[in-house]
What we know:
494 residues; mainly alpha; Helicase, Ruva Protein, domain 3; 4 domains; three-stranded antiparallel beta sheet; two-stranded parallel sheet; 10% strand; binds glutamic acid
Amino acid sequence: MSNSPVRVRFAPSPTGYLHVGGARTALYNYLFAKHHGGEFILRIEDTDQARSTEESMQMQINDLAWLGLKWQEGPDSISLIDVGPHGPYRQSLRLSIYKEHAEKLLADGLAYHCFMTDDEIEVQRKESLRLGKPPQVNSPYRDWPLAKALEHKEKGHKASVRFKVRTKKDHVLPDLVRGEVTFPSDMVGDFVMLRSSGMPVYNFCCAIDDALMKISHVFRAEEHLSNTLRQMMLYEAFHYELPKFGHLSIILGSDRQKLSKRHGATSCFEYAQNGYLPEALNNFVALLGWSSPEAQEILSMEEMINQFSYERLNSSPAVFDEQKLSWVNATHLRALPAEELWRRVEPFLTEAGLVMPKDPAWRERALNTLKTSMTNLKDAVELFRPLNEAPVPVKEDAREVLSWPTTKIVIEAWKTGVEKFNSEYMEESDFLKLQDSIKEGLGVKGKHLFQPVRVAVIGTPQGTELKMLVPLLNKKLLIARAEHVLQHMEKGPT
Ligand code: GLU
């Protein structure tokens, strides 16, 4: 590694949500920067005006902030105002920089105005394909003197600006992930730098920005490998120092096809909505193409930062395994301190309209009881629903239980037993004792005992075991619920 400071960037195009693949790219760059005490920069590549939106930029920024991948330079996550000495960090605000660079290459004879129309280009493309040649443009304007081209432009003729590919030589990229990659000399023809609208294209902006922002290393998706050749040519033309590149493995779905919407949730936002933890998503995506030297599967951010090195990045495809993600999530979730877990669970409960006791000791007990059944935060909704402080409705599936002749006396005996109880909450053993005493007193046992009690407590014979739930329901609530069921029975089946 050269001695220049480590500066890496994540450069999303704001054309949709942050995809898990994008999150992985951002994470690896972040981990690399942190591991080396370097800087992590966020640059927004929004020169594709037709597809880029402000909304999508904001969403991606929110997702990165949610993942906790803090950047030192780039648009501030809240105000969107640029922070850092190399701004602006949105390409749409750097157009004059690209224009100047294009003018320099035009003046040096390393680029030219090309007046070919789309139709002319298409005819050439078809002809090359017919002859079995790579479909490269062969522009008749390549050797026009600049003055002549400018004059022609003055007259209203539209021109794009193309890079003049001169040397037909193989380019070799020492890729940090793939080893040496050789690009054959004829892989690209004269490529567009500025469209006829004056808008610069991705490869042009990217190379200039990486150079001006003093980016030392670029870890990015495999699909950009073919762009790298064009970028290398631009670096050479500007005499800029080439950063080191590492092209990451592709991510496949369980069917070994490229991961896409067909495979289910693929955006970070969806995972957040579905109750996944950012630390779990980071941990999981880190392992899609990287492995810990200690073969650790559950890692905190700090551990990943300490252990990260590009030598352990794998170039072969990674398979996105939903079940593993669930396991990683459950493991992180269950390890959270109660107070923190509650802070994360609460918005899901509130959203579902559930009201829970405020007492922190109760919350801790409830979480300790129920978190072993939780894979994600959203699971809390159905697990906590029976603990809602409002009366629970008697569910349709209780109908049969309510029709048994002994049900009413069981529920009455249950209610009396609870009323006689001295403290606010029963322990599991108190509950089991009370159930036993009902069995002895009434001679009712098995499902004819257990199911009416379940209906009296949670309105349904299904669900979490009562010995777990009852100690979390206070006496007043238990009595109110039993009364509610008895009243329901009196009214008769509806
Ligand atoms: N803007 C590109 C993308 O979103 C990233 C290019 C790069 O990392 O060089 O795919």
